[in-house]
Design brief:
- 44% of the residues lie in helices and 15% in strands.
- By secondary structure, the protein is an alpha/beta fold.
- The protein has two domains: 4-204 and 285-306, TIM Barrel (Alpha-Beta Barrel), CATH 3.20.20.70; 215-282, no CATH class.
- Helix 2 (26-34) runs parallel beside helix 3, helix 3 packs parallel to helix 4 (77-86) and helix 8 (176-184) crosses helix 14 (292-310).
- The longest helix has 19 residues, at 292-310.
- The mean pLDDT is 96.
Length: 311
């Protein structure tokens, strides 16, 4: 399955596991890479020393390419990127910030850089900043999301029309058929998050994994646009947020309600009532917790079967 993405990352399949906070440690990243995709360690939930440990363990667990996802809004981003360079990581996905800030530094150190965007405007800015590829993520995606509410299958062809560098589709993709559809619309590969949350190697709490596989359509919603838009499974915390909105709460009241560590509480510690449960709309198609390698095999098999049937 050779194309621009497999050649860029030196991988077998154009399948990238998203760098999801509290879900994507070294076990998941190495498992996906060993299966032929590209695994990403999610640095967003890690202190610098913890990230270094995960990188070292990932290097010991796989001889295949893997990368690190870095949300640039965190205060210790400079230290995180320094560790990435010191540890010889060759692929970095950046998000939640201006790609111009760190792309030159990463490129100078021989690192392949990919930036995550939710609009054509920022895809073009990323290309101008010198990144090697772009992830265009639609409104269906879990976790932090774009404010524009542009769906993946609308966003991908619009970005493709303007971009010359490789394009990766994200948001609402968990199957081979979804992967094929994204590639027909112009994507060179796919980034998959939610499906890998509910796998054996994910560092998510078992309570959260089981919540994901029982979720149905309509069980998630994008909220907190005033702060940083995030798609959540509806629970007690979500309901309390909606009550604040009905009371015309201001930004400070929303910040106070969110507090600190809400995502860790839900996804990593398993508090299904009071935590943030970040997952995509595609959760309604996820019905079992499986090993990451089996998930990759199923996606590839489903892709090949659909390609023969429809193309």
């Amino acid at each position: 399955m050779k194309n621009r993405i497999t050649e860029l990352f030196k991988i077998e399949y154009p399948i990238i596991q998203a760098g999801m906070v509290w879900n994507s440690g070294w076990k998941l990243a190495s498992a996906v890479s060993n299966a032929g995709g590209l695994g990403l360690i999610g640095a967003g939930s890690m202190y610098p020393d913890v990230l270094r440990e995960h990188i070292q363990k990932c290097k010991n667990a796989t001889n295949k390419p893997f990368g690190v996802n870095v949300p640039m809004l965190y205060p210790n981003v400079e230290e995180i990127l320094k560790i990435i360079v010191e540890e010889g990581v060759k692929i970095v996905f950046t998000s939640a910030g201006n790609p111009k800030t760190w792309t030159p530094y990463l490129k100078e150190n021989g690192i392949t850089v990919v930036h995550v965007v939710s609009s054509v405007k920022f895809a073009l800015k990323s290309e101008q900043a010198g990144v090697d590829a772009v992830v265009a993520e639609g409104f269906e995606a879990g976790g932090h999301n774009g404010r524009e509410e542009t769906t993946t299958f609308t966003l991908i062809p619009m970005v493709k029309e303007k971009l010359t560098i490789p394009l990766i589709a994200a948001g609402g993709i968990a199957t081979g058929k979804g992967m094929l559809a994204a590639m027909v619309l112009g994507a060179d590969g796919v980034q998959i998050g939610s499906r890998f949350v509910a796998c054996e190697e994910s560092s998510a709490h078992i309570n959260f994994k089981e919540k994901v596989i029982t979720a149905e359509d309509g069980d998630t919603h994008l909220t907190l646009k005033e702060l940083a838009p995030v798609r959540l499974i509806k629970n007690k915390f979500y309901t309390e947020l909606q009550e604040l909105y009905q009371q015309n709460a201001d930004i400070e009241q929303l910040k106070n309600k969110l507090g600190k560590g809400r995502a860790k509480l839900g996804m990593f510690e398993g508090d299904l009532e009071n935590g943030e449960l970040e997952i995509g709309q595609i959760a309604g198609l996820i019905h079992a917790i499986k090993p990451a390698a089996e998930i990759v095999r199923e996606i590839v098999s489903d892709f090949n079967k659909a390609k023969k049937e429809f193309c």
